[in-house]
């Protein structure tokens, strides 16, 4: 987690600057065309892998991706619960909104 950015307002001629709502809200992330192409590529490739995995489970194809499963699970991971990244990002987003208001 990065530290919160400090807002600095410089007064011009001793006058109070006008603060717009847009300036107070968090800055929007800018995505380049290359970034969007990379995200699209990874998304489409993952969708293809998931389709192939579903097909191999139902016996449609003999070759394709293979899901790794440990033969002897690590006892230290017995109570491991995977994180739901979408839920975590949602909580982070809401926390930022609450801290700004």
UniProtKB/TrEMBL annotation:
One Pfam family this sequence matches: FAM195
Cell compartment(s), UniProt: Cytoplasm, Stress granule; Nucleus
Keyword Transmembrane helix: no
InterPro entries from the UniProt entry: MCRIP (IPR029428)
GO CC terms of this entry: cytoplasmic stress granule; nucleus
Main subcellular localisation: cytoplasm
Similarity section: Belongs to the MCRIP family.
Protein name as catalogued: MCRI2 protein
Organism (species): Baryphthengus martii
Lineage: Eukaryota, Metazoa, Chordata, Craniata, Vertebrata
Gene name tied to this protein: Mcrip2
